[in-house]
Structure formats: structure tokens, C-alpha cells
TrEMBL record:
Positions of transmembrane segments: none
Entry keyword annotation includes Flavoprotein: yes
Ranges for domain FAD-binding: 7-322
Keywords: FAD, Flavoprotein
Cofactor(s) this protein requires: FAD
Molecular-function annotations in GO: FAD binding; oxidoreductase activity, acting on paired donors, with incorporation or reduction of molecular oxygen, NAD(P)H as one donor, and incorporation of one atom of oxygen
Identification of the protein by name: FAD-binding domain-containing protein
Organism: Blastopirellula marina
């Protein structure tokens, strides 16, 4: 009797990465997604050195490096002055930079690699509330024909994002908090003297602005740089004194930030990874990167038939990072007069201390904890 394949729900970056890592170990999963076609959103713009390490063996890092832009460091601005700079070349790592690359391009590279391995994403298949998911039985519905099928799998990886139906099906609590105030982003071409090989953080009285180039691989020489302008308040473009928008935003979005973590990384045969397991603010650029690391750990354990260790190995790491990003975000927001005073006056001085600078560098680059070692 042929055994049914393992099932991955969700073909975002985390589900795709998981399928790729598993395939490298000779495990061929089925991967389904409710979307009609891949997302073209630029969302996560920064691939960190940890992700570049994890994707190196499959040759994907070289493909990403060929398209992305190396970000050498971060510059902090206040009142039109540079008040601090942090450089990634201080890292002792073979990838001492962040790589600016649109999430849609990262996903395309992951998807093409999967296709070369003979795995195609099955689109328009939606996991619906499935009472027997815990036992490895998921109900999939075709989003157009409404045809239903019962997928039986030895295990299911739920990479179905922040609103995970898998998480709801197995009743796993997702405690944490959501900020009331919406954050707003624009991807927009700017005429500016801002160094395009750096991230820029600007402390303003209403909070902060974050700017990073949007790199898709479609850029033409001579075209103005498209920047992600993100603020934790409405109309962030109004706060740009050092840059002029050229034309309309290519993407504008507003969203509410949450810091949350599942109480368990698995229930029965269902395992969680990526946004289905943890959410935090984009400060630190960790969401997608942390999810890809979940996927790598999961695949290593699957290879060794040790999935029962996934929660024990992964939950403490994800917990530490969600808490750390929440603290960093609270500091950056500066939402009361007192907090702003501390941020504006202390941050530039603190960043001159080696220990503070190293903690920030290691957090942003994903190198703030070692990877577990797995015997060959
Ligand atoms: C503005 C912004 C900036 C960000 N910047 C960064 C950054 O710089 N670096 C970083 O690391 N992260 C960043 N992130 C976070 C990052 O985008 C997410 O962490 C990442 O997309 C999570 O990937 P995922 O695969 O877990 O989930 P998703 O990307 O949400 O993918 C989930 C997939 O599952 C599918 N799906 C959902 N429900 C079902 C269902 N019931 N059945 C079948 N399929 C389903 C969806 O269609 C989707 O394709 C940013 C996020 C935002 C919004």
C-alpha cells in the first residue's frame, strides 16, 4: 500500500522553504495554498545572514545574492541629523550584511527551486476547519469548484499564516497583544540623497520612520530607487524632509502589529511554523526569516524521525525572539514624552557601547542564538 505524503498548508515563504528543505532530505511533501496564484507583495524586504546560511546548501543563496542588494548597515536620523550608525561588517560571519530583496522575489526563487525538484504548489486548495486535523486528516476545498477532498497525511505542517485555520482547528491558543494604532507603509520612488545601501531609521515626535530600498530584480539603471517607507502612524510620507516622492505609491498598506506566540508548536500530527506560530512587529526584520528557520529545524527533525522534539527545540527560541522584538519595538515607538526622551537622547550613546551594538546587530541578523546541531 502506498503511504500518503506529508502535507504542507500554505505556500508563503515558510511553507515553500519547508518543502525545499524536506525535499533535500528525500521527503516529498504535498503543498497546497488557497490563493489562485502566488502573492506579488513585497512584504518582507530583508533576508538576514541566518537565512542565507540555511539556503546555501541548495544553491538558493547564490541566486538571491545575484538579485538582491547588500545592505551595509543602519543609519539613525533625528531632526535632519545623523545621530548614530551601525555597520554589519562588524559581524564575524561570511554574510556580514542584510540582503534587500522583495518577499515576492524570494518566494519566486523558492518556488522555482521546488518545481525543479518536481514539487508544484497545488493552488486554490483551502484547508477548512477540520475536526480530525490532529490525527492527520485535513479537509481541503477547491476555491472555485467547491469540490471537497479529505487529505490524510502522516503529519501536517501548518504554514498558513497569521490567521491559521489549522491553529483554530486544533484549538491552540495564540496569546499576546495587538497594538491599537495602525502602522502604515508605502513603497514609493523617492528623489533623495539617502544612501541606498543602508537602512534608515528616523526618530520623530510621533514615533519613527523606517526606510529600506525595495529590490525586486526588475530595476533598470538610472531609475530612482523605490523605498519602503514605514511609520507607526498615519501618512508617513508627510514626515520625509530629506526625500521627495516621485509619483504614486506602488503599494500602500496599513496594518495592526501583534506580538503573539502559540502555546504549543504542535498538537498531535499538526506542527506550526512561521506566522501561524508567531507574530511580531517588522522591527528587526525577523518574521519571514524566523519562519524559514522554523522550517529548517522542522525538516532536520523530520529527516531523523524526531518530530516529537520540535516543540522543545523551537518554542523557547521563538519565545525569546518575540519578546526581544517587542522590547525593541516599544523602545523605537517612543509613544510617551518620557519614552521619547530616553530614546532620542540615550539611543545614540547606547549604540556606542560594544555590548549594546552587538546585541542589536545579532538580533537584526538572526544570529542571536546558535542553530541546533543535527548529526549527518
Ligand atoms: C509590511 C511588512 C514588512 C515585513 N518585513 C519583514 C522583513 O523585512 N523581514 C522578515 O523576515 N519578515 C518581514 N515581515 C513578515 C513576513 O512578511 C511574514 O513573517 C511572512 O510572510 C510569513 O510567512 P509565512 O509563510 O509564515 O506566512 P504567509 O506569508 O502569510 O503565507 C501563508 C500562506 O498560506 C496560505 N493560506 C492561508 N490560509 C490557508 C488555508 N486555510 N488553506 C490553504 N492555504 C492557506 C496563504 O494564501 C499564504 O500563501 C513583514 C511583514 C509585513 C506585513
Amino acid at each position: 500500500m502506498t503511504q500518503s505524503p506529508p502535507l504542507i498548508i500554505g505556500a508563503g515563504p515558510v511553507g515553500l522553504a519547508a518543502a525545499g528543505f524536506l525535499s533535500q532530505h528525500g521527503i516529498t511533501p504535498r503543498i497546497v495554498d488557497k490563493r489562485n496564484e502566488p502573492s506579488q507583495l513585497s512584504k518582507a524586504l530583508a533576508v538576514n545572514p541566518r537565512t542565507l546560511e540555511l539556503l546555501e546548501a541548495s544553491g538558493l543563496t547564490d541566486k538571491m545574492l545575484a538579485i538582491g542588494k547588500k545592505i551595509a548597515g543602519a543609519t539613525i536620523h533625528r531632526k535632519d541629523r545623523i545621530v548614530a550608525e551601525v555597520d554589519f561588517d562588524q559581524l564575524e560571519h561570511r554574510f556580514p550584511f542584510m540582503l534587500a530583496l522583495s518577499q515576492a522575489t524570494t518566494e519566486r526563487i523558492l518556488r522555482e527551486d521546488l518545481a525543479e525538484r518536481g514539487i508544484e504548489v497545488e493552488h486554490q486548495l483551502e484547508l477548512v476547519d477540520s475536526p480530525q486535523l490532529e490525527e492527520g486528516q485535513g479537509e481541503l476545498v477547491h476555491t472555485e469548484t467547491y469540490e471537497r477532498q479529505l487529505a490524510k497525511a502522516p503529519w501536517i505542517l501548518a504554514a498558513d499564516g497569521a490567521h491559521s485555520i489549522a491553529r483554530k482547528s486544533v484549538h491552540v491558543p495564540f496569546p499576546g497583544e495587538t497594538y491599537d494604532r495602525a502602522w502604515v507603509l508605502d513603497d514609493i520612488a523617492l528623489a533623495s540623497d539617502l544612501a541606498p545601501n543602508r537602512a534608515h531609521i528616523k526618530f520623530v515626535d510621533d514615533g519613527f520612520l523606517f526606510l529600506l530600498p525595495v529590490v525586486t530584480g526588475e530595476e533598470n539603471p538610472g531609475e530612482p530607487t523605490v523605498w519602503r517607507v514605514l511609520g507607526n502612524f498615519p501618512e508617513p510620507l508627510n514626515y520625509l524632509s530629506e526625500a521627495n516622492p516621485m509619483g504614486e505609491s506602488l503599494w500602500n498598506s496599513s496594518f495592526h502589529i501583534s506580538h503573539r506566540l502559540v502555546e504549543r508548536m504542535n498538537v498531535g500530527k499538526v506542527y506550526f511554523a512561521g506566522d501561524a506560530a508567531h507574530l511580531h512587529s517588522p522591527v528587526g526584520a525577523r518574521g519571514m526569516n524566523l519562519g524559514i528557520e522554523d522550517a529548517w529545524v522542522f525538516a532536520e527533525l523530520a529527516r531523523q524521525d524526531r518530530l516529537n522534539e520540535y516543540h522543545k527545540l523551537r518554542w523557547p527560541v521563538d519565545n525569546m525572539i518575540v519578546h526581544r522584538i517587542k522590547t525593541m519595538t516599544g523602545f523605537a515607538k517612543g509613544e510617551s514624552f518620557f519614552k521619547r526622551m530616553i530614546r532620542n537622547h540615550l539611543a545614540p550613546h547606547l549604540l556606542r557601547w560594544n555590548s549594546v551594538r552587538e546585541t542589536m546587530l545579532h538580533t537584526v541578523t538572526g544570529l542571536d542564538h546558535p542553530l541546533p546541531e543535527f548529526p549527518e
